[in-house]
Design goal:
- This protein is of the alpha+beta class and about 180 residues long.
- The chain is about 25% helix and about 30% strand.
């Protein structure tokens, strides 16, 4: 399997306003043209965090552990629609209640994304897609902290965890 490099994404400014279109291939070729994505961090009631393992065929960070659900916003799609579509495709659920926690610009050597970050608590079974993911599981936060910086996780996940998610958890908001 392979990502469709001709798939079209919106180009946005830092405020999320639509500016034009870009292909997936061009969005990931080092052009660093800003395009929107959605992330969902899924906690269970024990405070463990679900992570997905990216398949080896992915063009960005193959084989690494990452945010429970993440994906590009399609052309003409609203953020909430993209989030629910991606969660349905990747985790096989629709009965979750996401809470937005932040929006920020992430930049790597290959791309630049406007990331819309959400969290939810979910205790029912998840149904990870065999086509979209290489697997997934709930991780105790201490296990995640112990593996930071060892190449196990995507750099984006590590940065988001430390910068946004840990402060959110420390405020007591992660356990609702």
């Amino acid at each position: 399997m392979k990502d469709n490099r001709y798939e079209l994404f919106p180009i946005v400014d830092k405020g999320g306003r639509f500016l034009g279109t870009i292909s997936r291939g061009h969005a990931h070729d080092g052009s660093k043209i800003l395009h929107p994505v959605v992330h969902l961090h899924v906690f269970n009631s024990r405070g463990e965090l679900y992570l997905q393992q990216r398949p080896v065929w992915k063009d960005i960070q193959p084989g690494k552990w990452d945010t429970a659900c993440g994906g590009h916003v399609n052309l003409g799609e609203h953020i909430d629609e993209a989030l629910h579509r991606e969660v349905g495709e990747e985790l096989g659920i629709s009965d979750f209640c996401p809470r937005p926690i932040t929006r920020y610009v992430f930049e790597s050597q290959r791309e630049r994304e406007l990331v819309h970050v959400h969290v939810c608590t979910y205790d029912r079974p998840l149904h990870p897609s065999n086509n979209e993911l290489a697997g997934g599981r709930f991780w105790p936060l201490e296990e995640i902290r112990g593996a930071l910086g060892k190449g196990l996780f995507t750099p984006n996940f590590e940065s988001e965890l430390v910068t946004y998610l840990i402060p959110y958890i420390n405020k007591g908001a992660g356990r609702r």
